[in-house]
């Protein structure tokens, strides 16, 4: 089955699988006291900064709740776009884990701006109100759009002016970096991000994410927060060794480039079909578009993909690191046959 439903549906890159097999040799100390984790930590620091603290966790939701607990107290509020993963798709776990109120903000493209956030920065020092404590952004956004470095810097400058923190959910950060032609460091550390959820599962890993803490003031308690959040793996080497493969010879970038390139090819082909209308710019590996409902229903007989806004016949298509030109052209051929 070839799918455009989600990059979660893709397989595991062969180099990552080989790394897992190498780690599956003999015995090793648990909970991260092993050479594979040590090597992976060094690889992460090479990509970002030598002073960062990488913590490997099981999944994306886990990485977000660990990060947000580091940045907040229960009397804080967390500001995010109304399409944000922590607000829409994590079953309330960030609220349960942090005790914080989430303040969603409506956006047209999934991106926050200082102008959108400023009206919500009030009540500081008033014990009747939740105190604004953190800004959450996704890179790429849930709508496939990408923050530029200037846009990120504007948000971190605003947050730090108000003694707030910024957490970047980088589930698809590789796609964003490739789209911008920037390094991982340039779109995180250099922009003033405090904590990053560094994703890999959507880009060739089997499982696992990495919470990367850049703000040194937040490092001391991080390991305890990870443990309390049930995100510390006993056989941690099977999570960490994947990141060594991922960050060797720019595998992360090569995978993202293929996914983004296939998204652009799919967008080019779809743009030639009169009944297709894009609802967002195609800046990463996600496409948002509408077409008549009867065509959608017919395509669903051959392919699985998700509705984004069913009332408006808006669907989402996602390419992966292992999507091929044949996959794209076969999809287009099927759609044209229906039309």
List keywords for this structure.
4-stranded antiparallel β-sheet; alpha/beta; about 15% strand; 7-stranded mixed β-sheet; Aspartate Aminotransferase, domain 2
Largest sheet: 7 strands, mixed
**CATH topology value of the largest domain:** Aspartate Aminotransferase, domain 2
Count of domain modules: 2
CATH superfamily of the largest domain: Type I PLP-dependent aspartate aminotransferase-like (Major domain)
Spatial extent as radius of gyration: 20 Å
Strand numbers in spatial order across the main sheet = 1-7-6-5-4-2-3
Percentage of helical residues? 25-40%
How would you describe this protein?
- The longest helix is centred in the last third of the chain and has 21 residues.
- By secondary structure, the protein is an alpha/beta fold.
- It has a seven-stranded mixed β-sheet, with helices on both faces. It has a four-stranded antiparallel β-sheet with strand order 8-9-11-10, covered by helices on one side.
- It starts with 13 loop residues before the first helix and ends with a helix.
- The protein folds into two domains: 233 residues, Type I PLP-dependent aspartate aminotransferase-like (Major domain) (Aspartate Aminotransferase, domain 2); 88 residues, Aspartate Aminotransferase, domain 1 (Alpha-Beta Complex), CATH 3.90.1150.10.
- It has 13 helices and eleven strands.
